[in-house]
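Late entry, evening session. Most of the bench is empty. Finally got around to the prediction I had been postponing all week. Sequence below, unchanged from the version circulated by S.P.
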Amino acid sequence: MTEGVGLEQARVVAELVLGTGVFTDAILARLARDARLVVVELNPTLAARLAATRRDPRLTVVRGTAADLAAAVGEPADAVVSGLPWTVMPQDRRGQILDAVADVLAPGGRFTTFACLHAAWTPPGRHLTAELARRFDRLERSRTVWANLPPAFVHRAVRRP
């Protein structure tokens, strides 16, 4: 998830989470000392737990919706990393969040998210790929990670410089 995103050179990174902070830890491990990571989590319990268990001055945890990403970050982001479950959310909600991601990215900014292989060929999986292609100038797909359960791959999208 964090390979090929340019986190080592990024000044501002946003993360859309659903979970315990596994991606947060991986991002912080790659982030420069003077960079900033803004994590947006809707669930108040998970947001509080994430803030309480990660003592890093580069990290800001915002309890809020991913659709309000620009307000949470406050400036253009060099990268956005997402662990959101795209294929199970309503299409209009997915579109709002993807619009927010595209809007917050700086020119040349990168967006990365994962998808489960078994869902890639379902209508929601195909819609996600099409929506990414419409919003970004370049879209790549990683090799399948078979060791992940379920097997998954990563979408990497880039906004035109």
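Two things to note before I forget:
The mean pLDDT is 92.
The longest helix spans residues 91-104.
Will write this up properly tomorrow.
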